[in-house]
Amino acid sequence: MIGLKRGKELKGIEKAAVFLISLGPEVSSQILKRFSDSEIERITMEIANTTSVSNEKVEKVVDEFLLLIEAKQNMIDGGINYARDILERTLGSQKASIIIKKLKETSQIKPFSFVREVNPKQLTNIIGQEHPQTIALILSYLQPEQSAVILSELLPEMQPDIARRMALMERTSPEVLKEVEKVLESRLSNIMFQDFTASGGIPSLVNILNQVDRGTEKHILEELEKYDAELTDEIRKRMFVFEDIVTLDDNAIQRILREIDTKELALALKGVDPDVSERIFRNISKRGAEILKEDIEFMGPVRLRDVEEAQQRIVAVIRQLDETGGIILARGGEDTIIV
C-alpha cells in the first residue's frame, strides 16, 4: 500500500503510526499526549507520510501490540520466567526471545516484584542484616502490606533510621537497583529494569506506616522526630487526610465533631466531595445539619488555602484523639473503635 515500505519489517516508529491511524484521531490524540515533544513530532511526521494502510498491516501491528500487552501482564503477574514460558509454549522459543527482549528494553515493571509472593518474615531474615539504605530501597518497592510486616519485624533501633531514609529517597539509578537485586536473585529470582524510576518518598512511607501496628508507628515517629522534626510533621500530616473521615464509623465521627467548632467545620466542608459532607450531616441533628448547610452556603467564595488549613486543623484533632485513645484509627485491617 502507498506510504508503507515494502520488503522489510516495519520499524518501531512506523508501527506506532499504523497503530494510531487504526485507532482514529480522537483516541490517538489522547495517546499522543503521553509522549514527549520530540516523540510526538517524529510520530506525527510518520503519520503524515503514511497516506494509506492495508488491513493486513493493521492486523499485524495490532496483534503484536496485544501480544506485548499480554506478555507484559504475564511478566507482572508471574515474573519474567513465567512470561517466557507462556510465550515459548504459544509462539516458540525464537519469537518468545524477541518479545522478552523488547519487554526488557521498554517495560516499566516494578523492581523487586519477584519477591511479591515471598513470606514477609522470611524476607526479613534475608534483608535484615543489610545496610539500612539497602533495606529502605527494597521496602520502597514492595507492597505496603508486605513492607509493613518487614518494618515491624526489624530491630526497633533500626526502624526510625530506615523510615527516614525511605522518606528522603527520591530517584534511584538502574545500576543501583540491579546491584541491590543481585543480593536477592540467587535465592529468589532476577529482574531487569532499564529506566530511572521514582521510589520511596513520604507517600511510600505513609502507606507502610498506615499498615504497621500502633506501637511500631509511634516508636518510629517519635524517634524520627529527634532526627528531623519537620520531616516527621509532614509525615504525620499525610497519614490521615480530611476525606478519610468517610472511612470512620458514625460513633467515631460523632466523637470528633464534639471537639470541632461549627464555623471551622463549615469552612472545611466548603467544596468537598458530597460523600464527605453528607457523612458529616448524617452524624449531627437535623437542625444542626440545616444550620451547617446555611453557614456553608452563606460563606461565599473562600480561598482554597483557607479551606485546606481548616481541614488540616480538623485532621490534627483526629490525630490527637487517636493518640490519646479517644478514638482508634484503623491500622492494617483493624476496625475503627471509640472509647
Give the helix level as a range of percent. 55-70%
Tell how many strands the DSSP assignment holds.
4
Widest sheet: strand ordering: 1-2
Alpha carbon gap, first and last residue: 75 Å
Radius of gyration (CA) equals 26 Å
β-strand amount = under 5%
How many helices? The count is 19
Largest sheet: 2 strands, antiparallel
Order of helices and strands: HHHHHHHHHHEHEHHHHHHHHEE
Uncertain stretches of 5 or more adjacent residues: 1-8, 189-198
Secondary structure category: mainly alpha
Shape, per Cα inertia axes: flat
> Quick check: average pLDDT?
75
Q: How are the SSEs ordered, and which strands pair?
A:
Blueprint: H1 12-23, H2 25-32, H3 37-48, H4 55-78, H5 80-91, H6 93-106, H7 120-127, H8 132-141, H9 144-153, H10 159-168, E1 171-172, H11 174-185, E2 197-198, H12 201-209, H13 214-227, H14 229-238, H15 250-257, H16 262-268, H17 274-281, H18 286-298, H19 304-324, E3 327-328, E4 337-338
Antiparallel strand pairs: 1-2, 3-4
Helix pairs in contact: 1-3, 1-4, 4-5, 5-6, 7-9, 8-10, 9-12, 10-12, 10-13, 12-14, 13-14, 16-18, 16-19
Task: Give structural notes.
With 339 residues, the chain is mostly helical. The chain has helices at 12-23, 25-32, 37-48, 55-78, 80-91, 93-106, 120-127, 132-141, 144-153, 159-168, 174-185, 201-209, 214-227, 229-238, 250-257, 262-268, 274-281, 286-298, 304-324; strands at residues 171-172, 197-198, 327-328, 337-338. The chain has a two-stranded antiparallel ribbon with strand order 1-2. Strands 3-4 form a two-stranded antiparallel sheet. A hairpin with an 8-residue loop joins strand 3 and strand 4 (337-338). Helix 1 (12-23) packs across helix 4 and helix 12 (201-209) crosses helix 14 (229-238). The radius of gyration is 26 Å and the shape is flat. Mean pLDDT is 75; it is low at 1-8 and 189-198.
